Structures are given as structure tokens and as C-alpha cells.
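Figure 6 in text form: structure in, sequence out.
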């Protein structure tokens, strides 16, 4: 079983999200992310599930010696890098590290353009 499938169907975050109807609306892509490791540092893995309309894509990976924060960040980064075109994205994570990194440390109006972060004037 893929790590992404295991995380998506067994992790409480996925149950809560699916239970509230996490289907992407028109023009919205939902990216579910998760990462963890055994020990800290230790062997770890990450998963990012992209869901838009009736399509879904799973991205997974692992590392033999890592930290939980690194795997959480990797899941979010890999999920966003997998986007093929500009679109609205709802990134879902249970990681305060990732959430605060996005909400508190990126400039207001930041967006991805050509694989790099740019700020859009308000």
C-alpha cells in the first residue's frame, strides 16, 4: 500500500476533512499533506494528495535519516511543485510548522510563479 493511501485513509486529519466534504469546487485544487518520521531524527516519509474535480494524484517519498519538520515541509513543497498551471489551491496540513511558515513568514499576497515565490502587490 502506498504511503499516501495509508495516510489519506487512516490519519484523523483525512477522516475529518473527508467527513466535511473536502471536494474541490470549480477552479479549486485541494492539496492534503503529511510527513513524519520514526525518532527525530530517524527514517521518515511524506505524502501529498492533490485533488481537483474528479482527478486525484498521490505523491510520496521517504528519507533514511530526517526530521518530522523536514518531511512536513517536503510534502507541502512537492505538492505545490507538482502543479502544472496557475490555480487556486487549498493546502491542508496538520503541521503548525508548515502553517506558520506560510501564514506568518511569507509576504502578504505571495504566490508561486515559474517555480519561485513572488509577492503580488495589494
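Output sequence:
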Amino acid at each position: 500500500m502506498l504511503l499516501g493511501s495509508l495516510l489519506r485513509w487512516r490519519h484523523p486529519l483525512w477522516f475529518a476533512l473527508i467527513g466535511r466534504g473536502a471536494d474541490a469546487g470549480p477552479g479549486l485544487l485541494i492539496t492534503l499533506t503529511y510527513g513524519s518520521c520514526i525518532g527525530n531524527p530517524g527514517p521518515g516519509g511524506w505524502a501529498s494528495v492533490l485533488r481537483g474535480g474528479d482527478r486525484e494524484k498521490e505523491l510520496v517519498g521517504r528519507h533514511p535519516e530526517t526530521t518530522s519538520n523536514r518531511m512536513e515541509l517536503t510534502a507541502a513543497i512537492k505538492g505545490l511543485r507538482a502543479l502544472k498551471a496557475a490555480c487556486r489551491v487549498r493546502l491542508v496540513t496538520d503541521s503548525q510548522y508548515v502553517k506558520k511558515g506560510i501564514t506568518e513568514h511569507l509576504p502578504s499576497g505571495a504566490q508561486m510563479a515559474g517555480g519561485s515565490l513572488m509577492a503580488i502587490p495589494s
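Caption detail: Residues 112 and 118 are 6 Å apart (CA to CA).
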